Amino acid sequence: MILKAKHHFFIYPFFQNYALWKIRKAFHAVHIVGSFKDGKRPVLVIANHTSWWDGFWMAYLNKKKIHRQLHFMMLEKKLRKHWYFNYAGGYSVQKKTRSLLETIDYTAQLLKSSSNMVFMFPQGKITSMHETQITFESGIEKILSRVDNDLHILFVANMVDFFSHPKPILYIHLEAYQNTNKDRKALQLAYNTFYAKALNSQKNRSE
Question: What is the maximal distance between C-alpha atoms in the chain?
Fold first, then answer.
């Protein structure tokens, strides 16, 4: 049995507001680059996995732009250790076990409700934000093959620069995936094209 996400009346809003406070304290500024046109559908966010900060950045994006109930996967061992994340939208996954199928089915069910947002890191591990190619694991295709309704698929690339400031500046690049093809390779190609544009944008940025 997987640990399904809960949204505790105190812990969930506390985590959302704590994420905003933590980011305001640690970063000089946050810039959201791109737009999200809300069609009142469930939202799947596909993002690069670069650091410990990723969950906070996703909570910030949700609070500022997406306005859905937040859900995210965590390895079961880590979720049991940090149990409070279960009450802030986290649910468990165990790779290479029979329960993985249950997690896939549960994620697909979440993506059938227009009130939900699920964010995923399809490469399955932390990598440098300077990577030029991101390889998707097969889980995302298995999830989307079980979703027969319309939904927003939103690509996100989080990048950090300092420039002349002692604190870093966070740039959250985003773009809607417009193709109806939910094949893993099609998603991976489209995401890497988007990611290359985001990297190029950062290279040409002066502040």
Answer: 50
Per residue in 51-88, pLDDT (tens digit) is: 999 999 999 999 999 999 999 999 999 999 999 999 99
Dihedral of CA 98/103/109/112: which sign? negative
Is-above-0.85 flag for pTM? Answer: yes
**Rounded to whole angstroms, how far apart are CA atoms 24 and 38?**
25
